[in-house]
Amino acid sequence: MTTARDPILAAGCVLWRPSPSGRGIEIALVHRPKYGDWSHPKGKLKRGETAEECARREVLEETGRHCALGPRLPTVHYAVAGRPKEVAYWSARALGGSFTPSREVDALLWLPPAEARPRLTRARDRELLDTALKTTRH
């Protein structure tokens, strides 16, 4: 049984791909119309799902891309309506697939890190990007 004190568990990725120009990488940002924000793909764990499975599923659902998980990033902690939330993150390389807008995510942007950073709505997402850039081999 879940109580209001139990954390909401979620997982996501700082998703990247090699730049089509051949110089550097691009970071995937998703726009969620419900919140009007730009963030990294993430979502709540389903019953019986591991954090790794959730991260891969959420990337696929929100970006249309399969991914290969890379280095584990810091877990982010914050409150949602007074309830604690814990989001496990990985750096992940985008593989095949294509984006289709939905009610949950209506836009996907691929931007160089220097352009992605200021576009992210929340400071915690900018910090995750900074950490991912230090730990990701591309």
Q: What's this model, at a glance?
A:
By secondary structure, the chain is an alpha+beta fold. Helix content is 24%, strand content 44%.
Topology of this structure?
Elements: E1 8-18, E2 25-32, E3 37-39, E4 42-44, H1 51-63, E5 65-80, E6 83-97, E7 107-111, H2 113-119, H3 123-135
Parallel strand pairs: 1-6
Antiparallel strand pairs: 1-2, 1-4, 2-3, 2-7, 5-6
Quaternary organization: single chain
Total strands: the figure is 7
Return the string of H and E elements.
EEEEHEEEHH
Count of all domains: 1
Note the total helix count: 3
Assign the CATH class. Answer: Alpha Beta
The CATH architecture is Alpha-Beta Complex
* Helical proportion, percent range: 10-25%
Q: What do we call the CATH topology? A: Nucleoside Triphosphate Pyrophosphohydrolase
| Termini gap | 43 Å
Low-confidence stretches: none
Shape descriptor: globular
What value does the average pLDDT take?
95
Could you state the CATH homologous superfamily? Nucleoside Triphosphate Pyrophosphohydrolase
State Rg. Answer: 14 Å
- Assess the beta-strand content as a share of residues: 35-45%
The largest sheet, given as strand count, sense and whether it forms a barrel, is: 7 strands, mixed
